[in-house]
Amino acid sequence: MAVRAVINVDVDGPRINRHLYGHFAEHLGRCVYGGFYVGEDSEIPNEGGIRLDVVEALRALDIPNLRWPGGCFADEYHWRDGIGPKDRRPVMVNTHWGGVEENNHFGTHEFMALCELLGAEPYISGNVGSGTVREMSEWVEYLTRDGDSPMARLRKANGRDEPWRVKFWGLGNEAWGCGGNMTAEHYAQEARRFGTYCRDYGDNQLYKIAAGANGTDYAWTETLMKQVGHLGCRHIRSTGFHALSVHHYTLTGPTWEEKGSATAFDTDEYYTTMAAAARMDEVLAGHAAVMDCYDPGKSVGLVLDEWGTWFDVEPGTNPGFLYQQNTLRDALVAGVHFDIFHRHADRLVMANIAQTVNVLQAMILTDPDSGALVLTPTYHVFRMNKGHQDATSLRVDFRDALPGRPVGEAKLDTLSVSASRKDGAVLVSLSNLDAGEPVDVEIDVRGGALDGAEALILTSGALQDHNTPESPSVVAPRPYDGVKVAGGTLRAHLPAHSFVTVKASL
Ligand code: AHR
């Protein structure tokens, strides 16, 4: 028996902001150095030190934005250390991440060049925790001010005449923890103060994002929303912030010290991971409900600027580098997250996976010795799903109970589906999370006729399967003939632990 669902293709849901497919690159482990940036003298083909193979792979994802330089690193980063001739840039210690030396060779100009190569918008996290208002204010001036001013002059002296365009600006990171251990009340005042002096120069308008809650800390969100409410939403632009963030990772293990292996896990552990991933729905719904009380018009955005799986580091690697492999399980975690993001597209304006290269749930892993590049299963989900960017979300209503598995006291729904419409086509994403059983889905498509369905499948023999330089395509998308579209019905057979996308014209 198939699970029956309905999609009305002529009933518009909210637009799926393309920034829900955003990324995050921190000065952490081998994300920047060795990942994005190898230096101009490297044998790896590069432009100004930026790896061209990484750029090429990421361009295929249409990545909309890149958040930088942290994370926890952001609140210890002083941007003036990262400009000017490289041999004169000071060396600092990256105290958060392995205590390694940071030579500041990748700084503001290199980051902006990377964004230009990627075709992605920059999202800069400013330093509130250990920085000054003046320092942040001058960074904005350096980046975005045209004409004659102290910072514009300095930028020109460093070889860049034209100002850059920067929209997304973070007012610190995790202010409740590594970003200064502040209370919500104290941080709210700081966000207003720092935000006040981050100016809009010319027609460059900043979209300021306050550092938000840890997971389900809804009280943090309420405190920030009261600040915005007090100012009145129309004043946000000049005095406060336009959005607030939340960070929520998918953790499997019983304690922070035992997060579990990224590759060696059993079926029970797999279901625990998937149940943790599915909790994102509750987290976003909780923050959105608080925001609705203060801002029913939804003018303040919710930004999930860190999400993804967090496992134990690979044996033998630096514990401070957060390097983990990426299996089919990670791909299914990503698929479920995107379905949830699409359902919250009325409030959620951005999401950034942590992190793009070599850290946590990465798109790309690079070999530290040979430099070889591997595309992870998660990369393929981003690629298969990119048609949802800036599309109109379509509700998926189930007419039958969803299949599921018990996880602890709760039930994990093992079928997840989302859909959108763009440019005369419909894209449907379907995940069967069951580790051992296939499922059939029958979708009644109303309000328009679908034609010429093309399907792709991402699956593999085992949930633990992953890609390596020696076997780079163990988990890779393949054309799929298990989907049929006829007479207004879309029928899909989903093998166990599979992710399928279907694109059909309207
Ligand atoms: O992504 C790794 C770290 O996780 C970030 O630096 C921090 O913001 C979060 O705790």
**Helicity level:** 10-25%
The CATH superfamily of the largest domain bears the name: Glycosidases
Assign the CATH architecture of the largest domain. Answer: Alpha-Beta Barrel
Cofactors, ions, other ligands: alpha-L-arabinofuranose
Count of DSSP H/I helices: 11
Distance between the termini: 27 Å
Largest sheet: 8 strands, parallel, barrel
Organism: Paractinoplanes brasiliensis
GO molecular function, one term: alpha-L-arabinofuranosidase activity
Domain Alpha-L-arabinofuranosidase C-terminal: 305-498
Keywords: Carbohydrate metabolism, Glycosidase, Hydrolase
Question: What features would you describe in this structure?
Answer:
With 506 residues, the chain is of the alpha/beta class. It folds into two domains: 3-9 and 394-505, Sandwich (Immunoglobulin-like), CATH 2.60.40; 24-388, Alpha-Beta Barrel (TIM Barrel). It has helices spanning 52-59, 108-118, 133-144, 150-157, 184-196, 218-231, 236-239, 267-278, 280-294, 328-343, 377-384, and strands spanning 3-8, 22-24, 46-47, 50-51, 65-68, 92-94, 100-102, 121-126, 168-171, 207-214, 243-250, 301-309, 348-354, 364-366, 373-375, 392-394, 397-398, 404-407, 410-413, 415-422, 425-432, 439-446, 451-458, 478-479, 483-486, 489-494, 498-505. An eight-stranded parallel β-barrel has the order 2-5-8-9-10-11-12-13, surrounded by six helices. Strand 14 and strand 15 (373-375) form a beta hairpin. The longest helix is centred in the middle third of the chain and has 16 residues, at 328-343. It is globular, with a radius of gyration of 23 Å. The mean pLDDT is 96. Bound molecules: alpha-L-arabinofuranose.
